[in-house]
Amino acid sequence: MENKITQIYQQILSGQKSRFPSNTWSDISNAVFCTRYLIDNVLKWTDDDIKLKLNKTVFVQYKLKGMLTTVYDDSPYRAFDAAFPGRLKEWELKSTPKNFWTEDKAIEAIHWLLEEKLNDNDQLRVDTFEKYGLSGMFQTIFPHNLSEALIAAYPDGLTRTAVIKRFQIHTRVKDKV
After folding, report:
1. Residue 97 covered by a domain
2. pLDDT tens-digit profile of 45-82?
3. Neighbour-count burial for 88-112, b at 16+ CB within 10 Å, e otherwise
4. What is the pTM for the complete model shown?
5. How many other C-beta atoms lie within 10 A of the C-beta of residue 24?
6. How many CB atoms lie within 10 A of CB 69?
7. Mean pLDDT for all residues in the chain
8. Distances (CA, A) of 159 to 79, 108, 149, 156, 164
9. In a domain, 98, yes or no
10. Domain extent at residue 8
11. Long-range contacts: 5-9, Cβ < 8 Å, 24+?
12. Where is each DUF4046 domain found (predicted)?
């Protein structure tokens, strides 16, 4: 979809213009259009590409540093989520901001993993968290303690037998789930 802001952005990328007009970012829809244009038209990234490559450097390289700073407080994820609401969770990106993980976010991520990503016959192991970009959460909030993570996420009504049966968890006998 061509609009005035994407035309200006194209001119900036091609070197015809050196910067965006004053107050461009006071209209947040301009930031949304530029982010969409960058991802869909310039980079042509898939979700897997976004997960691996999206970071602040990309916005700087493609002349959107001012937008990222002004509108999104230097958060590539916030820019992406504004342009593509709900498409990815922040923890799906290769790196999360420093001090990102809290117990509440960790619990949300565990629910997301178990309820949206894994099937009933999938095995749940410590390396499963890494596979889904949650190793930082796992190390920070529940230092490699799968049982503790599951109890925190499902404090009421989670039984060891139910979890082990559903996800074929391989834990030591003394672990409590």
Report:
1. no
2. 999 999 999 999 999 999 999 999 999 999 999 999 99
3. bbbbbbeebeeeebeeebbbebbeb
4. 0.80
5. 18
6. 15
7. 87
8. 40, 19, 13, 9, 9
9. no
10. 4-90
11. 5/29, 5/30, 5/33, 5/34, 6/33, 6/34, 6/37, 9/33, 9/34, 9/37, 9/38, 9/63
12. 5-86
**Residue linked to tokens 């499902």:** 154
- Given a contact cutoff of 8 angstroms between Cβ atoms, the answer to whether 72 and 54 are in contact is no
Count how many Cα atoms sit within 13 Å of the Cα of residue 61 in the half-sphere of its side chain: 11
At residue 93's C-alpha, the angle toward residues 142 and 99, to 5°, is 45
Same domain, 84 and 8: yes
Q: How many residues does the chain have?
A: 177
- Total domains present in the chain: 2
Give tens-digit pLDDT for 78-102. 999 999 999 999 999 888 888 899 9
